[in-house]
Amino acid sequence: MFEVGRIYNRRLEIHKPYGGQWQGGISTPRDWPFIFLFTGESGEQYGYKDGWDDNGVFLYTGEGQEGDMDFVRGNRAIRDHTLDGKDIHLFQALGKGKGYRYLGRFACSTWEFRRGRDVNGDERRVIVFHLIQPEDDDEHIDPTPRMTSLDQLRGHALGAASDAGYRNPREARSPYHERSAAVRNYVLARAAGTCESCGQQAPFRRQDGTAYLEPHHTRRVSDGGPDHPRWVGAVCPNCHREIHHGAEGEGKNRQLQRHLGELEKVRGLVP
Predict the structure, then answer these.
(1) Which of 142-146, 149-153, 183-187, 235-239 has the highest mean pLDDT?
(2) Where are the domains of the chain?
(3) Which residues lie below 8 Å from residue 26, measured CB to CB, with a gap of 6+?
(4) Dihedral sign, CA of 16, 17, 23, 29?
(5) pLDDT category, 54, cuts 50, 70, 90?
(6) What does the alpha-carbon distance between residue 187 and residue 220 come to, in Å, rounded to a whole number?
(7) pTM confidence score
């Protein structure tokens, strides 16, 4: 969708094709599975400043100019983006008329409350989100979890993917990778060695004897990082490549989404 480092015109190149609120720091397009975040210098007048910390975590302040910040509208959307199957795309304002530089795709791992000032100068509670850049670390996750029960794996994955939790920013990376592993382990166990797209058996076995299938995130263009079990399927390499690169890939992805919805509906995860 966007090229990291490239400068975009917010109205013409971001909102015109995708929609979403044209003003403010948090934009939530109705018909697309992502959230746009815009960061700049405007928050400094209220006692906070977005930016990278020493651990490579991007600290992003929530919305709301008056009174305590609450988890409503855009703030809720950021916290629950994994549950809703939406990606976060972060842009940096370069100044009036200079456009917005695309910083990349991010995930909200954790968040915290801080004290700051509102537009009236009154002290208030401020929400600071801890954003990290997802990594495609499937091959670095142990495919054989200690838990063997599918119910245990499901419960662990749902608990991990429910929403971002309250943490210190120094701890932001650990929960993210734990969620990634929990969701991955569950969907591979759910598939039981059968591709959830084509219904065929996995093409081969790993060295440890487990069936080789690949997690596919049906709500994003690329893969990698935690998601909700409702939106992640275990597919064979052939189906995975076809979904991403094939002429019928979009339709195949929609079909997989419907199938996952039915699977999780039976298990009580989808209303």
Answers:
(1) 235-239
(2) 7-132, 140-266
(3) 35, 36, 37, 38, 62, 63, 73, 74, 75, 77, 78
(4) positive
(5) confident
(6) 17
(7) 0.69
Helices (H), the chain: 16-18, 73-79, 150-161, 173-191, 237-245, 249-266
**Rounded Cα–Cα distance for residues 60 and 62 (Å):** 7
Q: What is the pLDDT of residues 29-38, one digit of tens each?
A: 998 989 999 9
> Which tokens in the block code for residue 42?
């405007």
Lowest mean pLDDT among 19-33, 207-221, 237-251: 207-221
| Cα-Cα-Cα-Cα dihedral sign, residues 223, 224, 227, 229 | positive
Q: What are 103's two structure tokens?
A: 């910083």
Dihedral sign for Cα atoms in the order 148, 152, 154, 159: negative
Provide the CATH number for the domain formed by 7-132 in this structure.
Answer: 2.30.280.10
All residues at 6 or more sequence positions from 159 whose CB lies less than 8 Å from its CB, including other chains: 182
Q: How many CA atoms lie within 13 A of 205 on its CB side?
A: 5
Give me the chain's average pLDDT, please.
85
